[in-house]
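Table S2 (continued). Query chain:
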Amino acid sequence: MTDPQTPAGSTPDENVPPAPPAPEAPEAAPVADTAPEPPAYAAPPAPPAYEAAPPAAAAYASAPAAPAYASAPPPAYGAPATATVPGKTMGIVAFILSFFIQVIALILGIVALVQSKKAGHKNGWAVAAIVISSVLIVVGIIVGIAIAVAIASGLAVACAEYGPGVHQLEGGGILRCGE
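Corresponding output:
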């Protein structure tokens, strides 16, 4: 094997080009007597010739071989990914909606609970949504009935006071009694 910097059959001295001659300093133009003349600069010296590189085979023949390392261990297994419980997200949504839109929350809660039961999981969010929605629907019905009864009784008292006929109220409404 030959050294790429010294081709076969040549010596290192043959491949080194001769140093170029140093350029001469330009002659300075005569200057007035008041200014001193700047010193003339010489050209930089030629770079030194490089020594020949040692043969590659001889330099590495006596070097010890690199140690052989064992292969890297396999990557550590992390905790297994937890499978998502079907219907859990829908159960959470149903729980949140159970405070505002009870009928939709009741339907979503039932669907979420059925999905979770089919997969064999429990879904507390869906159960809570069903319970809260059902209770609030019943409370809403009771409050609605109570308001309707209060309005009806108020109208009955007003009709008893005014008597049968059509009456103009102070607020601009019309009350019809006994027709």
